[in-house]
Amino acid sequence: MPKINAATVAEHRAQQRAALIQAAVDILVEQGAAAVTPAAVGARAGLARSSFYQYFPSAAALLAAIVEESFTAADAATGRCLAEVREPAARIDAFIRTELRLAAQGAHRPAKALMRADLPPECLARVHELHHRHYAPFQAAIAAMTGEGPELTGQLVGGIVQAAMTAVEEGADPDRVADRALALLRHGLSTPPGERSDGPPAAAR
């Protein structure tokens, strides 16, 4: 077991728990939920298998903890960036730029892996609940800006955001991707529905 320096027993335990969760996240992303076992996670974290059970009663309990914690940092980051922003277009801008910065840091890897994983039904339902809650301010800003229900428009905009996040995770510059994505969104969201065209410009026909 590697030595962990901590001022108190509580800090020591918090560090070990965090090490187990990080090890589980790495395994989840690389190999899928089925590979997240007490033995594999303990070995990855450099802890004995028996140490695993001091923090989690089962692999399912560990996955449930990952579900909760995978959204904590993202919720906190978007909450901070939106705290002083009121205008809908500015909220969309701030939200997307924050999401792409998080993507560049790899913060979305656990949530994406969880969405694809064969999780217990209650865990999967919680993932979807937390995902919906995380994007609720973004969806509300879209509705406020367009005057329409957020369902279809939100899905379409979400597709652009997901594509932007993928580009950043693959190495693209997050600021450059944000600028391009927001240019597309600002045009689409600010144009009244009756003035939008589904075909190419006349010169291109």
Provide the CATH top-level class of the largest domain.
Answer: Mainly Alpha
Largest sheet: none
Number of strands: 0
β content, as a range? Answer: under 5%
- What does the average pLDDT come to? 84
Please mark out the parts with pLDDT under 50 across 5 or more consecutive residues, or reply none.
Answer: 196-205
The name CATH uses for the topology of the largest domain is: Tetracycline Repressor, domain 2
How would the global form be characterised? elongated
Q: Please, could you describe this protein's structure?
A:
This protein is mostly helical and 205 residues long. It has nine helices and no strands. Helix 1 crosses helix 6, helix 4 runs parallel beside helix 7 and helix 5 runs antiparallel to helix 9. It is elongated and about 60 Å long. The C terminus is likely disordered.
Salient structural properties:
mainly alpha; Arc Repressor Mutant, subunit A; Tetracycline Repressor, domain 2; elongated; disordered C terminus
Summarize the structure.
The chain has helices at 9-31, 38-45, 49-52, 59-82, 88-104, 109-116, 121-146, 150-169, 174-190. With 205 residues, it is mostly helical.
How are the secondary structure elements laid out?
Layout: H1 9-31, H2 38-45, H3 49-52, H4 59-82, H5 88-104, H6 109-116, H7 121-146, H8 150-169, H9 174-190
